[in-house]
Known about the structure:
- The protein has about 250 residues and is an alpha/beta fold.
- It has one domain: 3-Layer(aba) Sandwich (Rossmann fold), CATH 3.40.50.
- It is about 40% helix and about 15% strand.
- It contains 7 helices and 7 strands, in the order βαβαβαβαβαβααβ.
- The chain has helices at about 15-25, 40-50, 65-80, 100-130, 155-170, 200-205, 215-225; strands at about 5-10, 30-35, 55-60, 85, 135-140, 175-185, 240.
- It has a 7-stranded parallel β-sheet, with helices on both faces.
- The longest helix has 29 residues, at about 100-130.
- It is globular, with a radius of gyration of 17 Å.
Amino acid sequence: MLLKDKTVIVTGGSRGIGRAVAVACAQHGANVVISHHSHADETMAEIKALGRGAVAVKGDVADPHTAQLLVQAAVDHFGGVDVLVSNAGICPFHAFLDMPLETFQRTMEVNLHGAFYVTQAVANRMKDQGRGGSIIAISSISALVGGEFQTHYTPTKAGVHSLMQSTAIALGKYGIRCNSVMPGTILTDINKDDLSDPEKVAYFNKRIPLGRMGQPEDIGGAVVFLASDMAAYVTGASLLVDGGLFVNLQ
């Protein structure tokens, strides 16, 4: 119960990595507020079945107002906020030379601008509460490597990582820790079409030293650690959770 009675906000918490993170936090005793874009009934039911409080806020993280709504929901239902997991993100794969402006802008607005808005809103609340806190951004292995059809996406994930480095400096004086988690290839809705080719799946499994692609639940443990007091002296750091993919250059 590493997060007993803490309140955690998770953006994009209705499916994929966000859902797994929200459930993992609840398993460790946290109450959870999630943002979602469509529906969150299944995630809410799973958290409540664990005996923890759950609140869903429908909204677009690219809208700064959504960040304020999330903080207000945490305050109204649970009295404050202890942890933020900025997870919401999109990756509409597309070639570079004919990338539509709208695709580029939307990816930036959701992945990077949205992370900034919610981090700023939560940090202000944590500062006012006076008891510190933990902010975790879900970056990506894509912050470290390129992708032919991800020229709009990889810069946002590098930006999210950089945001955590800078906010770690800006917020350390308030006892607020800021770190990023960098998932490798995780099987989620965001890449299910890209990984529908069995040959591509076999290629990745061969490249990954642990022999398999990740599941969303693999990210949950890393987030719980960074959110907990076990990581009390960890800030400005990044945790690569990729089964060894990044280091396997041979």
